[in-house]
Amino acid sequence: MTELAYLADMDAAYTRQFVAKVVALPPGGVVLDRTFFYPAGGGQQADHGVLTPRSGPPYTVVDVTKSGPNAIHRVRRPTTPAGPALQSGDMVEGSLDWDRRHRHMRLHTGQHLLSALIFERTGVRTREANMFGSGGTVDLERPLPADIRPEALATEANAILAEGRRVSIRYLSREAWENSPTPRSGLVALPRHVDPVRIVEIEGLDACPCGGTHVRSTREVGEIALDAPVPLALGAVRVPFRLLEASPPTRPG
Ligand SMILES: [Zn+2]
């Protein structure tokens, strides 16, 4: 079983380097006792990086996937110079491709804000969201009302982002979450076994269950732009968004 160590609290999502023990070696993969690498899921892409054994060159992590209770780091084995093959019980140092991960954290936080803002202004909820590269998509249950222009939404979103609202994590029992009057901007059903529920909150705007990684302050997202919505099947609509700045205005600590 892999402890998903990035989940614990907001600071854990900023851990870029860690030491962990190899517990299994499925073909092409490495399972650790704990990891700060995010396995693909919930619309957020997997982290990349390296796993470096105590002796020998690093293994490149090209993908991370969840498999039951384990996170499998898909690796490319170093060829030159060839090191001793990894063994179960070995300690490795994990190091994340931070530019990639931090972009995902900014995108994911921006997406929460966008979904919450759209819901607050229009009552339209998000069915699904996906993030990749420096952009993402929010799939809405139905089109935006005709008087809501994407540019106006972007302007409003950017004003809130610039306020530097606090983003935080808390855990609630399943029962407490089910009974809470918090408005639901998302339509993604929680799997039955999830208890407690990890709630990601943007101060004064949104609270929603999520297992992804996010930035501490909305200011760290930087500015976003919205592109023209694209119609999907069954009356749904896809709203593309992207980060305007390659790097955020304030570097993470
Ligand atoms: Zn999230």
Give a quick summary of the entry.
The chain is of the alpha+beta class. The protein has 2 domains: 3-96, Elongation Factor Tu (Ef-tu), domain 3 (Beta Barrel), CATH 2.40.30.130; 101-243, 2-Layer Sandwich (Threonyl-tRNA Synthetase, Chain A, domain 2). The protein has 3 helices and 16 strands.
In total, the number of domains comes to 2
Helix content: 10-25%
The gross shape turns out to be elongated
Give the assembly state of these chains. Answer: single chain
Helix count, DSSP H or I runs of 4 or more residues: 3
Beta-strand content estimate: 25-35%
How many strands, which pairing sense, and closed or not: the largest β-sheet?
6 strands, antiparallel, barrel
Spell out which ligands are present. zinc ion
Poorly predicted tracts of residues: none
Compute the separation of the termini in Å. 30 Å
- Provide the structure class: alpha+beta
Explained architecture:
- With 253 residues, the chain is α+β, with helices and mostly antiparallel strands.
- It has two domains: 94 residues, Elongation Factor Tu (Ef-tu), domain 3 (Beta Barrel); 143 residues, 2-Layer Sandwich (Threonyl-tRNA Synthetase, Chain A, domain 2), CATH 3.30.980.10.
- The chain has three helices and 16 strands.
- Strands 2-3-7-6-5-8 form a six-stranded antiparallel beta barrel. Strands 9, 10, 14, 15 and 16 form a five-stranded antiparallel beta sheet that branches. The chain has a three-stranded antiparallel beta sheet with strand order 11-12-13.
- A hairpin with a 3-residue loop joins strand 12 and strand 13.
- Helix 1 crosses helix 2.
- The protein is elongated.
